[in-house]
Amino acid sequence: MKKRKATEINASSMSDIAFLLLVFFLLVTTFNTDEGIQAQLPPWDPAAEETIENDRNVLKVLINQRNELLVENELIRTEELKSIVQQHVNNWGSKSNYSVSPDRAVISLKNKRETSYQFYISIYDELMAAYREILENAAMSKFQLPLQALGEDHRLQLSKQYPILISEAEF
């Protein structure tokens, strides 16, 4: 009887196919990138002097490593932040612990490195919601129109009267 040769699968082209599939998936796959927070920064002016704001005009908002919110060193709930910011900005000098005027009101937002990203974003969203509501109320009282219906010149006028001044830092 004649001996049969053991049948083998030719695997030399398998590595080529695996490599081509790997290259294909690397080229076709899209990776999600975190785009960050959309914020418009003021233009850099190296000639501008560093201004030190009156302590009364600065509302200190701190987020600690345990994701606790402190405003002026007092522990508060996230839901309370919007009304405190609105009181600070719309004070017009009436209360001594809030800002002198809306165009001088600064929100100092500081956080620890260990603060969770989601909690930081929720606090930032509350700050922006407070400013949106302030601008919406100002548009209704001054122009009897919602903010979205205002022309560019009226919006510019409101943004000068109520600038969004948020200072962000790590502590």
Outline the structure in words:
39% of the residues lie in helices and 13% in strands. It has a 5-stranded mixed beta sheet, covered by helices on one side. It has a domain at 55-170. Helix 2 (78-89) packs parallel to helix 3 (117-143) and helix 3 packs across helix 4 (152-161). The protein contains 4 helices and 5 strands, in the order H-E-E-E-H-E-H-H-E. It is elongated, with a radius of gyration of 28 Å. The protein has helices spanning 12-28, 78-89, 117-143, 152-161; strands at 58-63, 69-71, 74-76, 106-111, 166-170. By secondary structure, it is of the alpha/beta class.
Biggest pleated-sheet summary? 5 strands, mixed
Element order: H for helix, E for strand: HEEEHEHHE
User: How widely separated are the two ends?
Assistant: 87 Å
Structural class: alpha/beta
Helix content: 25-40%
Using the CA coordinates, give the radius of gyration: 28 Å
Characteristic terms for this protein:
about 170 residues; alpha/beta; five-stranded mixed β-sheet; 5 strands
